[in-house]
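Bench notes, afternoon.
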Amino acid sequence: MHGRRSAGFTLIEVALAIVVGLLVLVGATLMYQQTIMSSSYSKAREKVQAACGLIEETAAANSGNYPQPVAFETIWGVRRQADATTSPWGGTVGTFAVAAQGMVPVTGWPAAPWTVFSYRNPIYAGSLGYALGNTGATQSATDVLSGTTTTFTTYLVGVWDNQANAPYFPAGGR
């Protein structure tokens, strides 16, 4: 007497299907995270470019005098309210008691404008940093993402990421 063979999957076939499904899920998750991060970097770069444009526009309207950081903080908050209150990495910008308009103003060239405030402090996450230089002084900044160092002579703008690393996409007057 021959037993009837069951019509179904073996344990090995089920295990293989689960493994393949998990691999597809992990791959899709990684692609999603990479897309989100790429989008965040694009938003951060746009934020820095918008700040530089507004700084230059303000300087042009004031006989070539660049705005002082605290004055620019107010201009930034009024003219770019969405940038001032939202982080490129999602959520709101830092603690507004520190960066009232989503910006951390730095007067003069400190030894390192990005360490004047506690480096890696989450209250700066997503904030824009703006430092205005003293006449004849220079300031170098190394982009966290690319490792490229650039020297600036008039002003420097960058952004803190969601882990409070800075600067991302430093730009400014050379």
